[in-house]
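Incident log, support desk, overnight shift.

02:14 A customer reports that sequence design results differ from what the structure should imply. Their input is reproduced verbatim below. On-call engineer (initials T.W.) acknowledged and began investigating.
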């Protein structure tokens, strides 16, 4: 582990010490965040962990299964106080992800949401001052989002085992097992590892 943060030169020893302090403080902060969020959310399964900088609106409406991981600076937000967000077991939401659960958001098991991804479940149409319209989204099991994907409102469903390429904008339903990419995202391949 030391090779990752120290070049073994004596003059860089202060940098090593500083890095070790930073690592310890982050780990302590993550532990404290996990303890605090577990007492504040609607339901949290065992082995779930949270990192620093997470913001959640209406935390009592969030249900997390076992072994869910929520990364740094994740934002879980809604426009409504009656919306719900459910995340299945062993799913991972990486740093700087924004999840809008205004229309209702269900994320299956084993889902990987890479950093910088944004998911919307409501729309204002052409008038930003209008009352938001709920557009629910179901993300089935084993879906993988590359980095900086945008899923706009009205998609409805992303099928089991689908993969969304980095930087894509998803504008319509994604069939199970398909690889989609581009702006707007189109089918560019198929994942063959899925078992029926």
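02:41 Re-run completed on a clean worker. Output:
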């Amino acid at each position: 582990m030391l090779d990752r943060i120290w070049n073994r030169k004596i003059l860089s020893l202060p940098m090593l010490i500083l890095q070790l302090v930073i690592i310890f403080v982050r780990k302590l902060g993550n532990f404290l965040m996990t303890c605090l969020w577990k007492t504040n959310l609607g339901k949290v399964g065992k082995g779930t962990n949270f990192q620093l900088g997470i913001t959640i609106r209406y935390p009592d409406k969030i249900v997390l299964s076992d072994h869910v991981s929520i990364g740094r600076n994740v934002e879980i937000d809604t426009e409504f106080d009656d919306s719900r967000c459910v995340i299945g077991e062993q799913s991972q939401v990486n740093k700087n992800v924004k999840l809008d659960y205004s229309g209702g958001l269900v994320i299956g098991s084993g889902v990987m949401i890479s950093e910088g991804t944004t998911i919307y479940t409501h729309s204002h149409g052409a008038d930003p001052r209008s009352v938001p319209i709920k557009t629910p989204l179901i993300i089935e099991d084993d879906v993988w989002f590359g980095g900086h994907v945008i899923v706009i409102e009205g998609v409805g469903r992303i099928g089991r085992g689908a993969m969304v390429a980095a930087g894509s904008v998803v504008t319509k339903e994604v069939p199970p097992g398909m690889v989609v990419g581009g702006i707007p995202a189109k089918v560019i391949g198929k994942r063959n590892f899925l078992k029926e």
